Amino acid sequence: MNLPASIQTTLDGRVLLEIEVKPSSARQGVIGFNKWRSRLQVAVKAHAEKGKANHAVCNLMATVLGTEVEIISGHTSRKKRLSICNLSAEQIIEKLEEACE
Predict the structure, then answer these.
(1) What are the boundaries of each domain within the chain?
(2) What is the pLDDT of residues 28-50, one digit of tens each?
(3) Nearest to 15 by CA among 57, 100, 59, 72
(4) How far apart are CA 61 and CA 21, in angstroms?
(5) What is the pTM of this model?
């Protein structure tokens, strides 16, 4: 998995993560990495209506990473950018690789 391609660190210490969401899925979790789009693939059971899938993505990623997660772009798209505080890029990669196993 080439996770570093989807991660960017900002000057203020936040880490940005590019993801691709599959709403209305039968299962929920981190399901892999799309190497063509350089995005982590995340599935949620919630439907993409009235922000339900966005809320589910934030809850899922906060649980996986153990820290606060915020969607900063892509609120109405399957392609989203998340902002993650209090973790380094290396810590995020480690946690996401564990979640994909």
Answers:
(1) 3-100
(2) 999 988 889 889 999 999 999 99
(3) 72
(4) 11
(5) 0.90
Q: pLDDT tens digit string along 23-32?
A: 999 999 999 8
Q: Residues 52-101: pLDDT tens digits?
A: 999 999 999 999 999 999 999 999 999 999 999 899 999 999 999 888 76
Partners of 79 in the β-ladder: 20
Pick from 101, 98, 97, 99: nearest CA to 3: 97
Q: Kindly provide the residue ranges of all beta strands, DSSP E only, lying in 10-101, ordered along the sequence.
A: 15-22, 29-34, 39-43, 69-73, 79-84
Which CATH architecture group holds 3-100?
Answer: 2-Layer Sandwich (3.30)
Collapsing DSSP states into helix, strand and coil, what is residue 87? coil
